[in-house]
Automatic annotation (TrEMBL):
Family: Belongs to the prokaryotic/mitochondrial release factor family.
Organism listed in the record: Pseudanabaena frigida
Ranges annotated as biased composition (Basic and acidic residues): 117-130
Residue ranges of the region described as Disordered: 104-139
GO MF assignments: peptidyl-tRNA hydrolase activity; ribosome binding; translation release factor activity
SUPFAM superfamilies: Release factor (SSF75620)
One Pfam family this sequence matches: RF-1
Upper taxonomic lineage: Bacteria, Bacillati, Cyanobacteriota, Cyanophyceae, Pseudanabaenales
Residue ranges constituting the Prokaryotic-type class I peptide chain release factors domain according to the UniProt record: 21-37
InterPro entries referenced in this protein's UniProt entry, alphabetically: Pep_chain_release_fac_I, Pep_chain_release_fac_I_sf
Name of this protein: Aminoacyl-tRNA hydrolase
Organism superkingdom: Bacteria
Keywords in alphabetical order: Hydrolase
Gene Ontology BP, a term: rescue of stalled ribosome
Length: 139
């Protein structure tokens, strides 16, 4: 079980994990050993609560396909086990990010004194910049 929150978890059977060859330079083992992990998780077919599914599908994350499948490729480590743990942690983090509800922002209005300070600063700055210009001949 992959623990998401205190009350929800995902069964490992819902996650498809396949080993693939890592990309890039790697010496003697790069063409022989499949150490990278390709993780696929179908959001719609999962046992997550409907609200988490909806939030995940509304995320604009490049790891989520149009069909609602999360695809994570882990190839940072040298062993398959470490890459598998890394992929599972990244999946867990992605799902946990939608479990936290962001508080609504309270609309505020800048105070009159802060508005006046801003205008004064702008006029001072414009005067400084005006002094940098070319000096015309005086006579």
């Amino acid at each position: 079980m992959l623990q998401i929150t205190k009350y929800s978890a995902i069964a490992i059977e819902e996650i498809s994990i396949t080993a693939i060859r890592s990309q890039g330079a790697g010496g003697q083992n790069v063409n022989k050993v499949s150490t990278a992990i390709h993780l696929r998780f179908d959001i719609n077919a999962s046992s997550l609560s409907p609200i988490y599914k909806e939030r995940l599908l509304n995320l604009s994350d490049r790891r989520i396909t149009k069909d609602g499948i999360i695809v994570i490729k882990a190839q940072q480590h040298r062993t398959q086990e470490q890459n598998k743990e890394d992929a599972l942690k990244r999946l867990q983090g992605l799902i946990q990010s939608v479990t936290v509800v962001q508080p609504k922002r309270k609309l505020t209005k800048p105070s009159r004194s802060s508005q006046n300070r801003r205008i004064e600063d702008k006029t001072k700055r414009s005067e400084i910049k005006a002094l940098r210009g070319n000096i015309s001949d005086l006579g």
